[in-house]
Amino acid sequence: MSATRYRRFLKLCEEWPKQGTSKSRDLGSFLRQRVAAAFREGENTQIANPEKCDQMYESLARINSNIYRQRFPRVKDTSFTGVTLEECKVFLSGSVQQMDEQKKGLWKSLMERFSKAPEDVPEKAPEK
User: Fold this and answer.
1) What kind and span of H or E run contains 21?
2) Per-residue pLDDT tens digits for 87-100
3) Lowest mean pLDDT segment, chosen from 48-52, 56-60, 88-92, 124-128
4) What tens digit of pLDDT does each residue of 2-25 get?
5) What is the 3-state secondary structure (H, E, C) of 82-123?
6) In the chain, where are the structural domains located?
7) Spatial CB neighbours of 29, under 8 Å, sequence gap ≥ 6
8) pTM of the predicted protein model
């Protein structure tokens, strides 16, 4: 019976969409890692709690098939902040550091400028 569960999870992992922008926060890659860890011996893995395993599979299958998105459609494609889906994708794609650097406040810029050691700061040519 665990062989059937293993094959079902493998099929779910194959069907799960891959997110190309952010591999470190990709739910599909996390799911693949967890399935590989849970089924170390492949089809021969003994499952301690088969009911819980089946319940987890059913939950993930419902998420993958967008049942809840179809049942509860969104009225608008923005969040409560007014940020669009595309802006969220850009923000979560790993360019967070770039955005932080662009939007540094005056205080942070000044602190970085004055916290450098004297040898790090290039010397100006003496004025005549």
Assistant:
1) none
2) 777 777 665 555 56
3) 124-128
4) 788 888 988 998 888 777 666 666
5) CCEHHHHHHHHCCCHHHHHHHCCCHHHHHHHHHCCCCCCCCC
6) 1-73, 76-117
7) 18, 23
8) 0.57
